[in-house]
Design a protein that fits this description.
The complex is a heterodimer of chains A (540) and B (283).
Chain A lengths: L1 H14 L1 H20 L9 H16 L19 H12 L4 H28 L1 H12 L2 H7 L5 H21 L5 H15 L6 H20 L6 H23 L3 H4 L4 H11 L8 E3 L2 E3 L8 H9 L2 H20 L3 H24 L14 H22 L1 H25 L13 H5 L12 H15 L1 H4 L4 E5 L10 E3 L6 E5 L13 E7 L2 E8 L14
Parallel strand pairs in A: 3-4, 3-5
Antiparallel strand pairs in A: 1-2, 5-7, 6-7
Chain B lengths: L12 H13 L9 H12 L5 H7 L5 H15 L8 H14 L2 H28 L13 E6 L8 E6 L3 E4 L13 E10 L3 E10 L1 E6 L2 E6 L6 E8 L2 E10 L5 E9 L12 E2 L8
Antiparallel strand pairs in B: 1-2, 1-4, 3-10, 4-9, 4-11, 5-8, 5-10, 6-7, 6-9
Helix pairs in contact in B: 1-2, 1-5, 2-5, 3-4
Classes of the chains: A alpha/beta (540), B alpha+beta (283).
């Protein structure tokens, strides 16, 4: 106790107020994650990634003899760093498959929070870093995906660390140390080792190298050929390290390390596997029919209001601040972040990419957007505080209040935060029937826990009967072994909002339902009782 | 030629401060030669080299009066006709920088992260042990002893391992040394109760199984596949041997035992109530 009391003020004194708060928040987030990771349900993508992870592990354990990972489903086109880590953690921890995966998701998601803080801090200072951390922590799409999305969430985390590494090169110019080069190369490679779209980070790395050269030339750092050669050598090393990190857990790419990642990128940009319709602004459409402005509109609907306000403020004050900025490295860092946020959606719009599942394919934009928003909020608050302390404090209080509403939303929607829509759509209630809600199946686990508890309380004899038959669109994995799927004579029907499954058998009584913000996300209907208006059977 | 602050490496903060001190303690060197070093050290500390006075004013890691004084001295130094920053001011800043930057800071942070990781692992272990998060399948510390035989008469060579929970589903061979069909499984554990407890055991198996409690056959579902069988027992305080015998004919094989303790929601028996025994016949 004494030790703690002595240690905490030291931490605060050493780190400063913003950093201390950020560190304490990260500690708090880690503790919460350990308590809630098993609340999150299996999503539709996870099963294949678990299998792919096992196959990658087998590829290494059998010294490349077990080659199932080379052709497994469509997953062989993805780098498998996260999936391999999942396979290893499942071997190390005596947890169930899903729980082990979600614990890994929690760790990676926490690294995402850490990365957002570090990126914000590196670009805008301690205040921006801390505020960015707080904003990403209350961004429901990011939090909701972090635990059980095996592709988009790890990629978002990889992307923010790649940006952190690259910005590190810019900020350290012209004296970039070996550690900076290694960090940048490693992070860029790791981001691409989950989704090949991370190859974009290689372009940012190239831009950073060009900047380091340009800046070094300006301050006469590269006056002699030796320093130039050293720069070229280290930059090449960083690219090489990134490439190795990218393919280290990607068996298919290892067989043609230069050609195949590029092929995968070109193939993935034409990728159109979404043969299901979903509602977007009230209109049912396929993923390849979406309007060109799907991404900006979805971002506007899925980001919390406070982040949107922050982004608006950063657009307002950016010209003013950039004009005042004397350190070209800081300007270049912000410029890189702008590119990192604008280029991917612009590319998707130009290519007419197929999109579905809300904004999850562009989840990786959320951490840098949180940094932008934090930049705007901090700058405006400081400007106000410098002119009128009262006005500044009022704005601070308003920001704090809006943030606490965001935190309340995260708690309220747990563990399916990704269904969140902001007030531009009228919240989740306004988005019902107009947008996708539980597109990823994460609602089934909490719904099945609720269903089992209620069934046990109301009808223990049914719970303990020899077989309980159910039909529906998911949730089976969360039920006991004697709950069997039977589409012909089901006792219960389980359905979520995806594909209108929850509305099947709508005349039958509801046994239980998972409700968030007044909207039924998953409904379990009792099919044992006939509907009131059912037609009587015709006599033979 | 004077070294530009830009040319100082971020890693060399110690060297930068050492250089500044050497200059400042040299009676014949003008203090202004130490200015770039101290400025760079602040830039590293604050991650901001552009507007040092402003950054110093906002830095909350120092007492307000001190940081305002430091900021004023740099502002004065930056003005063309301003008064240069003095040797005493520079020395004071170097002392503050020495105290607040570099190794101890990092060591403390890394220590904090390591402590946090250990604490989190502890919480996770506690959660697993108390049964609030399920542990399952092959676990080197699980309380269940699992023995698999190649034939359903429970004879001949077998494979033995420990498991966290009596919940298995095998689509292929249950063990690398076993066939994928027509095998038999024996699971056993010791249930330790502090007080008399009512327990409803629910067992589902594919293709058949029987449950023994303290050697007495409690459920016989040897030829029943995929349907649950339930038995209720009022167990006295003490240790009870729980054993399941299971067999597979062909195709998917599974075995699942859950229990409702004192009329609670059925679920895996919490590992905190179970103890591993190497002998499948007794505890």
């Amino acid at each position: 106790m004494n030790w703690t009391l002595r240690w905490l003020p030291r931490l605060r004194w050493k780190l400063g107020r913003w950093d201390s708060f950020a560190v304490l928040w990260l500690l708090f987030a880690a503790v919460v994650a350990v308590f809630v990771f098993d609340d999150f349900g299996e999503t539709f993508d996870e099963d294949k990634h678990v299998t792919y992870g096992d196959m990658i592990l087998a590829w290494f354990m059998t010294f490349f003899e077990d080659d199932r990972a080379l052709s497994y489903s469509r997953d062989y086109l993805y780098g498998g760093a996260f999936d391999l880590a999942g396979a290893i953690i499942r071997k190390l921890l005596p947890l169930g498959t899903n729980d082990a995966q979600h614990l890994l998701g929690a760790i990676v998601g926490w690294l995402g929070l850490l990365g957002t803080w570090r990126l914000g801090r590196r670009i805008g200072g301690p205040a921006v870093g801390c505020v960015a951390l707080l904003l990403i922590s209350v961004t429901p799409a990011f939090v909701g995906h972090a635990f059980n999305n095996p592709k988009d969430a790890p990629f978002a985390v990889g992307y923010v660390w790649a940006l952190y590494g690259i910005v590190g090169l810019i900020r350290a110019a012209p004296n970039v140390t070996r550690r900076h080069w290694i960090a940048a190369g490693l992070f860029v490679g790791l981001s691409a080792s989950v989704r090949v779209a991370g190859l974009l980070s290689f372009c940012y790395l190239g831009l950073a190298v060009a900047f380091v050269f340009h800046y070094g030339h300006r301050v006469r750092r590269f006056g002699d050929p030796r320093s130039l050669l050293q720069l070229a050598g280290r930059a090449t090393g960083a690219f090489g390290l990134a490439w190795i990190a990218m393919i280290a857990a990607w068996p298919w790419a290892q067989l043609a390390p230069l050609r195949r990642p590029v092929f995968a990128l070109s193939y993935m940009s034409k990728f159109a596997l979404a043969p299901r319709k979903f509602p977007f602004e009230g209109v049912e459409m396929y993923g390849f029919e979406i309007p060109w402005d799907y991404i900006p509109r979805m971002l506007a609907f899925k980001l919390p209001e406070l982040v949107l306000v922050g982004l608006g403020l950063s657009l307002l004050v950016a010209p003013l601040l950039l004009l005042r900025e004397r350190d070209v490295r800081r300007t270049a860092s912000w410029a890189l972040l702008v590119l990192a946020v604008l280029i991917p959606p612009a590319y998707a719009i130009l290519k007419g990419s197929t999109l579905y599942g809300g904004i999850r394919h562009f989840l990786f934009l959320m951490p840098p957007l949180a940094v932008f928003a934090a930049g705007g909020l901090v700058a405006v608050t400081r400007l106000l505080l410098a002119r009128s302390r009262v006005a500044g404090l009022v704005v601070c209080a308003a920001i704090g209040l809006a943030w606490s509403f965001g935190l309340a939303t995260i708690v309220r929607l747990h563990p399916i935060q990704y269904i969140y829509y902001n007030q531009l759509t009228g919240g989740i209630a306004g988005a019902e029937d107009n947008f996708e809600l539980d597109y990823y199946g994460g609602g089934y686990r909490p719904a099945m826990r609720q269903f089992l508890a209620e069934l046990w309380e109301r009808e223990p004899e049914t719970y303990l009967s020899k077989k309980v038959r159910y039909a529906g669109c998911g949730g089976g994995g969360e039920l006991p072994a004697h709950f069997v799927k039977d589409d012909k004579k089901p006792d219960f029907h389980i359905g979520s909002t995806r594909g209108g499954c929850r509305d099947k058998y709508s005349t039958r009584p509801i046994f239980t339902e998972l409700v968030r913000d007044g909207v039924s996300i998953v409904i379990v209907r009792d099919l044992r009782k006939k509907p009131k208006n059912a037609k009587p059977k015709k006599a033979k | 030629m004077m070294t530009s602050p830009d040319e100082l490496s971020k890693d060399s903060v110690e060297d930068v401060l050492a250089a500044a001190e050497a200059i400042l303690h040299d009676p014949v060197a003008a203090p202004r030669f130490a200015v770039p070093c101290v400025r760079q050290a602040w830039a590293i500390k604050l991650e901001d080299a552009a507007d040092l006075p402003e950054a110093l004013r906002e830095y909350d890691g120092l007492p307000k009066a001190q940081r305002v004084r430091f900021a004023d001295s740099w502002q004065r130094d930056e003005q063309e006709d301003g008064e240069a920053i003095t040797r005493g001011e520079l020395l004071e800043q170097v002392r503050v920088l020495r105290r607040t930057t570099a190794p101890p800071n990092r060591r403390m942070l890394y220590g904090a992260w390591a402590l946090m990781a250990v604490a989190l692992l502890g919480i996770l272990m506690l959660r697993m042990y108390s049964g609030s998060v399920g542990i399952t399948q092959e676990s080197s510390v699980g309380p269940w002893r699992v023995e698999i035989f190649a034939i359903k008469e429970f004879r001949g060579p077998s494979a033995v391992f420990r498991a966290g929970d009596a919940d298995f589903k095998w689509k292929g061979p249950p063990h690398e040394t076993m066939p994928k069909d027509k095998f038999a499984t024996r699971l056993s554990t010791c249930l330790e109760l502090d007080a008399p407890t009512r327990i409803d055991f629910v067992m589902v198996a594919n293709d058949g199984a029987r449950l023994f409690i303290d050697g007495e056959k409690a459920i016989n579902a040897w030829s029943v596949s995929g349907k649950s069988r339930t038995v209720t027992r009022e167990l006295a305080a003490g240790t009870h041997l729980i054993m399941i015998e299971h067999h597979d004919k062909r195709g998917t094989a599974s075995i699942n035992l859950t229990a409702s303790i004192d009329k609670g929601l059925p679920g895996p028996i919490p590992p905190a109530l179970l103890r591993y025994s190497d002998d499948p016949e007794k505890c």
